[in-house]
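input
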Amino acid sequence: MKQPNIILIMTDQLRGDALGYAGHPDVKTPYLDTLASKGVVFDRAYSACPSCIAARAALHTGMEPSHHGRVGYEDNIPWNYSHTMAGQLSKAGYYTQCVGKMHVHPLRNYLGFHNVDLHDGYLHCARYASVPYQESQFVADDYFHWLKQELGADADVTDTGIDCNSFLARPWTHEEKYHPTNWVTDRCLDFLRRRDPRKPFFLMASYLRPHPPFDAPSHYFDLYKDKDLRKPFIGTWETTEDLEKNGRIFDSKTGPLDPELARQAQIGYYACITHLDHQIGRLIMALIEQELYDDSVIVFTADHGEELCDHHMFRKSRPYEGSCRIPLLIAAGKNVFPEIKAHSVCHSVVELRDVMPTLLAMAGAPVPDSVDGHELLSLARDPKETVRPWLHGEHSYGEYSNHWIVTETDKFIWHSVTGREQYFCLTEDPHELTDRIHDPACLERIDTLRSCLIQSLTGRPEGFTDGKRLIPGRPYPPTMAGATKA
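output
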């Protein structure tokens, strides 16, 4: 079989449950539902360090957080990895193109891609007046450059008045064709026009939405504004202390205190998802019309989720399902990988680090020894198989720093500043409404998962464990000393 074309559709901050095919009662995603119907869905996919930079390090290197060194969010740390997803596919004979978000340093670090049409969204650290010329988004970001050419020097994504981490929502202020979601699809279609037809291609369509700002075109807001939306999930273990203290801050980690603002955030988030879905539909139709679809494989995923006011929380970096569980599916055209079982679901715990070895397996390329992930083609062929019994996740997040062990059925959480532990039986309680950490019937299982976490943390430089117990209050910087720095 000849090498297939590979299209990786990457989204930002998309929850694993916020899709039609995942059973969400409100969100409409007909094109992604189509891909799910034609391929295999991994419904226990996670981001082991659920924020933008660390998650993308896992995606591009195939490494776990303690190996790629990003265990939290920190800007301006150089990316100097020996093996990257695009670099290895380039060596395997692919022409490699990324369109949209990279979120690496420096901004124009191509990570092995032959070409990048860049839009990282609104990055605070790249917009300040003191930023060097080449690291300014207004210079390095292709979308910002294009938008100013189209609409004038004053045009900006901030014209809506909404910040990139805000729970506020309002429709896009310009014509829909100027929206960054449309721009990513436009640039992908232009790549298909100018590609070398003699070579297989790897196209990473890296969309920023539904990451805030929640600013989809007005048509998509209209789809949801009058609907009776499912309320955020609030269980029996949360407190409102943080919400009462921070719930009137526009970019709070708790979300809004005002329930109407929480509803508006839901409307804006769902509007961005359906807008994204329709733009992915444009890309799919172009692949069909150019007679590329049947010779291509499509992988769809996200870097992390969005709490969206579940448990009185907002944004990501948390150990809960809204934050760390992500969508992942593989769909193939009729001429490639016919053994992939259409309309199937795999329950194995998988992670972003598994994407790189999976794409390399599709290309028939060797997997570097530095890669920790597993190729998922075997699971796509037989969804009843599994690749790991449990997954360790983590995030340096100040007072909210956390580590967790998740399996196909349950989750153990350790908050590394306070030492607080939590346990959720996901089979019975998928929305983590009941913390059973003190349930006598669960103590043996909790001991087992705690031992898995101790095993995973043993030898780490932070000193989280002595090999017998977990030790809270240890220093936990977002970038490990061993991370690749210039």
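quick obs: The mean pLDDT is 96.
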